[in-house]
Amino acid sequence: MASKGSRSGGRISADQVKDILIVDDHPLMCDALSLTLKISFGLKAVRTARSLAAAVDQIKAQGAPDAVILDLNLPDARGAEGIVTLRRQLPDVPITMISADMDAAMISAAMAAGAQGYISKSLGREALVDSLRRMWDGEFVTPEGYEPDQADADDEARADLARRFATLTPQQMKILRLICQGKANKEISYELSIAEATVKTHITAIMSKINARRRTQAVLLANSVRLFEAG
């Protein structure tokens, strides 16, 4: 696995990571990861959540974990949305994206959105543990052979855009997702059981936060950071 420097931000080291949250909707994957982490890091228990919403609720109820391992595709979130959402709640917690999708653009989007690393689900136990330990010690870790598909300046612009998306409220994120699906205000109003005037108010706020003038521009910006789609 390649690394891209490090950051500290006053965070704890790998040896101090004791509370881990796995967000993955596949029970077997959760069980395998939990067992590996317990054995390799001497943990008594590992938290799990089967959806992004469940993870958010658990964090609110039980507090922030020391580290998060997040599946790329969840029932209620695809692409970089999971990282953007959790980064808003956990600004200093290392979030590892795990996936079978090794597309360079998706890796770049995840890293720009605030992931500490991106690893393959096919990694062996030794490589997985080594990658997690390095991430929890502050390294940025990406798959071996990964080459960012754009220049550093573009990566920074994408990271800045991801930070702007992170300022959206959960309701605004839902509305933006529906906009990206081509839904009209009336359809969004019906689907979310809110007044159409409320939808318009939220859209105005969304446009202001992400600096977009039109719905089509908002969709393009969301697509540029792979916010809702994995591929």
Question: Descriptors for this entry?
Answer:
231 residues; alpha/beta; five-stranded parallel β-sheet; 7 strands; globular
Task: Give a brief rundown of this model.
The protein has 231 residues and is α/β, with parallel strands linked by helices. The protein contains 10 helices and 7 strands. The protein starts with a strand and ends in a 7-residue tail after the last helix.
Walkthrough of the structure:
With 231 residues, the protein is of the alpha/beta class. The protein is 50% helix and 13% strand. The protein contains ten helices and seven strands. It has helices at residues 27-41, 52-62, 81-89, 104-113, 125-136, 152-165, 170-180, 185-192, 196-210, 215-224; strands spanning 2-6, 20-23, 47-49, 67-71, 95-99, 117-120, 139-142. The strands form two sheets. It has a five-stranded parallel β-sheet, sandwiched between helices. Strands 1-7 form a two-stranded antiparallel sheet. The mean pLDDT is 87.
Indicate the mean pLDDT: 87
The main sheet orders its strands as 3-2-4-5-6
In angstroms, what is the radius of gyration? 18 Å
Strand content: 5-15%
**Secondary-structure-derived class:** alpha/beta
Q: Portion of residues in helices?
A: 40-55%
Number of strand elements: 7
N/C terminus separation: 22 Å
Largest sheet: 5 strands, parallel
| General form | globular
List the helices and strands and how they pair.
Layout (H helix, E strand, L loop, with lengths): L1 E5 L13 E4 L3 H15 L5 E3 L2 H11 L4 E5 L9 H9 L5 E5 L4 H10 L3 E4 L4 H12 L2 E4 L9 H14 L4 H11 L4 H8 L3 H15 L4 H10 L7
Helix pairs in contact: 2-3, 4-6, 7-9, 8-9
